[in-house]
Amino acid sequence: MDRPNPITKKLLIGFLIALGVGILIPQITTDFTTYQFTLAISYGIAMLGLNILTGYNGQFSVGHSAFFAIGAYTAAIMIEHFAIDPYTSIVIAAFAAFVVGFLFGLPALRLEGLYLALATFGFAVATPQLLKFDAFEHWTGGVQGIFVPKPEPLMEGLSADQSLYYVAMGIMVFLMVVAWSILNSRSGRAMMAIRDNPVAAATMGINLPMVKTTTFGLSAMYAGIGGALFTYSSEFVSPDTFNFFIAVYILVGSVIGGIATIPGVIFGGLFIVFMPNYAQDLKLFFEGTEGPWAAVAGVVPPPWAIFGVMLILVIYFVPFGVWGGIERLWAWTKRRSAG
Amino acid sequence: MKLRTLLASAAAAVLMTGAASAQTVGVTDTSIKIGNTSPYSGPASSYSVIAKTQIAYWKAVNAAGGIKSADGKTRKIEMISLDDGYSPPRTVEQIRKLVEQEEVAFTFNTLGTPTNSAIHRYMNAKKVPHLFLATGASKWGHPEKYPWTIGFQPTYDVEGEIYAKFALENVENPKIAILFQNDDYGKDYRDGFLRGLGDKAKDMVVKMLPYEVTDPTVDAQVLEMAASGANIFFNVTIPKFAAQAIKKSCEIGWKPLHLLNNVSSSVGATLRPAGLECSKGLVTTQWQRDPTDPQWAATDGFKEWAAFMDASLPDADKGDINYAFGYNAVKLMHHVIANCADFSRPGIMACAANVKDLQLPMVLPGVLINTSPTDFYPVQAAQLSRFDGTGWALFGDIIDASE
Q1: Which of A213, A215, A218, B183 gives a 20 to 30 Å CA spacing to B226?
Q2: Tell me, what's the ipTM?
């Protein structure tokens, strides 16, 4: 079996360049743009969780918004009701999401493919309603939600948005390395063996239920951390924030970046945050023009249409996503120059 | 080192431009830049016609030269309306874009309760006027805590209060049953109604039953309320459940004074499914001129609105009351800008909180807009209306809940 995401010298150089660009972003853009990048990172971390689950373990989830919400609310409640500092709150949020994910994974063991997808769908749909539930209102703030102040800058000279961006970026890099190490370990090979052939994997002595539930927990933990960071950058949580659309965002971004890749989530996150904004700018630009060009504005499709069309196109033409496409293009040019 | 020089020069540039213009962000001697968010996509997209009406209105105003304000300057209005898909985190993002990137002077008529909740604190922390929100929640009128946020339409709890006053005046020995949706909206109506009843509320309310929006029917609740012997039924439900409640009470022969919240007063969506015969005698409140009601066709306000619609939005369905809503809100904004002399952000806020007895074209005659530094609820009056079997007929005086 191939090692997933093998580290080559070129990949390492690429990674360092990406890291450099990442560090520079807040210095050369505004606080607002930096905040958009932080949003992209928080979605990206959730997509990474989905990639581990779906791409490497073959379990389907269309309900990662639920774990995203659990992370977000746990962090918000820790800060609001227990006055715990925001960074410790992320750790608690991660733990809470892991536990819920692990427990959700238990009954889900009996469910295969489509049925698991339906169960996660149900969970995602129910979550906003549960958050509104009267009995939890004292903690969740009910429909009113909870305001979460942005964490104070960690260093002098940084704005709150810049500081949060660096924290989010550091967490993402760390979580990517963790994901990579896990996937290249015995447990990672067990995950992929289950994806490829569960019967053979069981015969080889892999503890199927344990690996599957732990993977589910791990995946949920990633989504939870993403949710906590998302909350800090938006400074607000409410039940309506975590509607089913967030689950679709995570899924679409994950597929577009490449569902069985690690670096692909960067593209997925950026796509989800920036595409709707560019589509809107384009529409407003044409609306502002006079004459025949103004009619073009009516043709610019709304973001959801673009999401749908992109999803279909990617699945038909580059099922391995943007990152998979880059890898294949790279291999192809290498073969050309070699031959 | 290079980066530091770059940053230092950038900082210097920012300081210099800051010193050069003591003016408000987004305001010049010839223009004002404003913005809002509206659901152009997603489940609530039918409301986007409100913002579309307003953009068309400013376009017409600008084509005619702009607005002459009390400071003697004539300005054109540039309104940027962005799509938030009715999703709170998208609202935060788009509002930050408007405030920090587009640099609008203020926001106007941003739509939705969950969406405005998400930006409530941001707008007040940034001290950017958050004007005339398009939502009926009651939390937008708290200048002591949120001095930069002001509402627009009558709130659900004000409407609840109006029903209470009417019920007390018209029914002897009132015994009241309340059916309400178990969320923000339902509780706002319920609390306003109870406040309107005053100290004796406890003795008068004989049944108070909630329902969940996920329930299949409210038949059981209606039976329970009928059995309680109530002679007043306050019906706080959305159209589907309102129709069920009207039909069920009609079937079992329970004939209380039936007060129906304005949310479900649509003949097409509620009364026709419930049966027009069963709907006879229902009482609701109205504050806008219903464009489908022929009695307004000859009024100046309606003519003005219809002329604007024909000129600027010729393809629009004039039966959709949201076009009237958008027009009312934008006319209020126009009035505030025209009567303002101080265009600093606190100045704009003061102007918005200083509207006296303004009659808007598509608001009921006599329902006047009033705001003050302590009153951030522009519309607080409405008129009762009774269903006569074919249409709603206004009756009685205008009831002002602020008095």
Answers
A1: B183
A2: 0.89
